[in-house]
Known about the structure:
By secondary structure, the protein is an all-alpha fold. It contains nine helices and no strands.
Amino acid sequence: xxxxxxxxxxxxxxxxxxxxxxxxxxxxxxxxxxxxxxxxxxxxxxxxxxxxxxxxxxxxxxxxxxxxxxxxxxxxxxxxxxxxxxxxxxxxxxxxxxxxxxxxxxxxxxxxxxxxxxxxxxxxxxxxxxxxxxxxxxxxxxxxxxxxxxxxxxxxxxxxxxxxxxxxxxxxxxxxxxxxxxxxxxxxxxx
Length: 191
């Protein structure tokens, strides 16, 4: 077992987050625990709680790392695309959910016992701002854009859940991308 003095607080934070993501990638949130992270690090659970304050604190930091990487990829791709930027964001959401399924589900399966800290809420808001800013080409009304961003996110999220859970075929639906195209055309076409 390593001692806390073997690594700085920042090194322990990074090590814990790296090991947490390894576990989530392998087993999802259902196979995740502070004990599993500590064992992989070679430290005690007490060290984790000393660094993150609580289990919630650890998961908020893990989810923040997921959100940061996801946002960076979305923003970079959005900047490069010359085509329909809203369609790019919707397809990129579906792609991320499919390629990083365990990370994606961790963002939504975790039920905190405490309220999310402001810095965590800021990361979530940053994702919505990408959609809101893309909607500015259609309307300059920030209130309407905020509402539309949330409707689009919820709809695309639902399509992803059904598609990745193999339920679109059960209801005899078209592909996820076809549904996304229909959603964007019908919801935003009248805007």
